[in-house]
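User: Hello, can you help with two protein structures?

Assistant: Certainly.
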Amino acid sequence: MDQAAFRTLLQRYQQGACTPAEIQRIETWYRQLGAEQKLDLTAEEKTALMATVWQRISLQTVAAPLSVTTTPKAARSLNWASWPAPMRWAAAAALVGGMSLVGLQVAHVPLEQVVSHAGQILGVAPMADPAAWLVFTNASARETRVSLPDGSAVTLAPASTLRYQRQLQGNRRVAYLTGAAFFKVFHDEQHPFSVLTDKVVTTVLGTSFRVEAYAGQAEVQVQVRTGAVRVSQRRTTSTANPASIDVLPNQQAVYSAARQQLRRELVAQPVLLAPQAFVFKDRPVVEVLAALEKAYGVSIEYDAASLQNCTLDLSLDKEPLFAKLDIICEALGASYEKADGRILFRSRPC
C-alpha cells in the first residue's frame, strides 16, 4: 500500500467509514507497533497510525454522540493489564507519542500520569490541571453545534474533539482542536480567541472560519468566511521564527507538515459576500472585475492599460466565481490564475 492510500485509509478510519476488515487491519497494525515483528510501515506512517488510533479510540469510549466532560481528579494507580482494551490503547498511544522510538514500553502507569502526559502531547500546557478545561467530543456521524461560555458558537465535525479553557489564559481565550470545526467567534477586542492544533495557531478578535486538522492529515487548513484571522506555525525547537500569514474571507491558510510550509490560497468555491446583480450592458471590463471583487471579497489584479478599451455585454447569474471568470475570459480571449489568495487576470488589448 502506498503512502497516499495509507493516509486515505486512516482518514476513513477517523470518520468511521471503514469496513470491519479494514478496521481489523488498522488495529492489528497498531497492536504490532511495539512487537518484534517488522511492519511494512515507514516511521512517518507509524506516527500517523498512532495518532489516528488514539483519536478514534478516545471517541469510541464516550457514552453519547456528544459528550461534554472534564477529566476527573487524579485517580489511584491502576494496573495496565486491568484496564479495558480501548483505555490501554489510548494510554499507550499518548505515552508512545512522546517517545523518539516507536514501542510499547509501559507496564504499571498511574492514570494521572497518562492524563498529564497526553496534555503535553496535545500541546496544551495547562492540561496538567484537567479541571480547567471543558472537553467537547463529537462521536456521531453528523456535525454538532457547541456553545462556548464566551458566547462563541462552534460546529464540531464528526470524529472531532474541542477543548476550551474555562478561565482566560492571560488576556486570551484558548481552544484546542483535533479534527475539524467551524467557528463563529464572539467579538471581544480585549480578549483575542486562539485555536490551537498540533501544527498551527489561528488567532482572531471576532469572525467565522473553519479549521481542519485531523490526526495524521498531511495538511492543516484554515478557511475564513468573515472577518480576518492570523495563522501561525506552532513554535517548536526547530522553528525559532515560525511563519505567520493573515487570511481574509474566501481565502485559506494551508500548512504542509512534510515541507513545514505555510501558504495562502483561495478556497475551492468562494462564497458570495455581497449579493448583487451581475448584468452588464456594454460596460468596461474593469467595472465588471471590480463588481466581482466587491461581491466575493477577492483581489483581482490586471493590467489597466490593456483593458482600457475593453467592454462586455453579458449577464452572469448564479454561477460560482470561477465559472463567471471563465465566461469573461471566453468573451475576451483572456486567462487568469490563482496566486497567494488573489486572482491574476491577463488579457490582450481590445
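That covers the first. Now for the second protein you mentioned:
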Amino acid sequence: MAKITASVFTSHVPAIGAAMDLHKDHEPYWQPLFAGYEKSKEWMKANKPDVIILVFNDHATAFDLSMIPTFAIGCADSYTPADEGWGPRPVPRVQGHAALSAHIAQSVIQQDFDLTVVNHMDVDHGLTVPLSLMCGEQDPVNGAWPCPVIPFAVNVVQYPAPSGQRCLNLGKAIRRAVESYEDASGKELNVQIWGTGGMSHQLQGPRAGLINLDFDKQFIERMVTDPEGLAKMPHVDYIREAGSEGIELVMWLIARGAMSDLRDSAQGEATAGKAPKEIHRFHHVPASNTSVGHLILENS
C-alpha cells in the first residue's frame, strides 16, 4: 500500500535559504548554484510524491546538548519553521503524515533500531532548505509544500555519530516499513526519501573552510555504484577528507539504503531489484564556505 519510488540527496546550507529569502538567487554569486536545481524542480513537479521522508540533522533547534537522540522521527500532524536566531524562514508550515510516521516508528523499532518518537518539533534549515531547493519559493501564509513531510533527525553534531553501515541498514529498515504500510483510504502511497547535509566543509578550527572536490565527486559516484562499500568508510575518513561537518554525509546513506536494489538476505528478502536510474547529478562550490552536492535516483 506504499512504496519508495525515488531518493533525493542534497546539501542543506543555511546561506542558500537566506539567499532565497532575500531574493539574491539571481545574483552572480548564487545564480550558478540555483541553476543546478532547475531540472530538479521540474522533475519534482512531474513526480510529486504523496509523502516525503526527509532525513536531516537538527542544528540545536529541536534538541540541544541536554538531549541528543541518535535517530528521531517526527510523528506530529505539522511542524513549525524554527527561529534559528534571526527569525523563522518565511516558508509555509510543514504538514506531517502522523499515520505513516507512527507505522514507521513501530516497524523500525521492531527491527531493533532505537528511534526517539517526537510529537512536537520545530524544523530548521536542515529540513526547509532542501524543500525550497526542490519545490521553489512558497507563500509563507497562503502557500503550502507539495505534500506532507516526515522529519527524520540524525545526530551528526555531537560525538558519537552513527556509522555509515548503521545508516545504510536503517534505510533498508525504513523501506521495509513503508512497504508494509496500509493506508486507511486504500490508496497506494508514492513515497520519496531524501538524504540531506554535507558535502565537505568545516566551520571551525585551523581547517575552517576546507573543501575537497575530489572526495565529494567520488562520494556521489559511489552513492550510485557502490553504496555497500561506501557504508564501510570509518568516521575518521569523513573527518580527514571532508572536514568535521562532512560526517553529515552518513545521512545520505539512509536514503540510499531505502532504494529497492539493496535487499537484506538476513531479513529474508528476495533478490535485489535493478540498480536505480540516475535522473540528475550536480556539484557546485562554493556556497558560503561549503561544497554543495545533489543527486536524484529513481527506483527501476
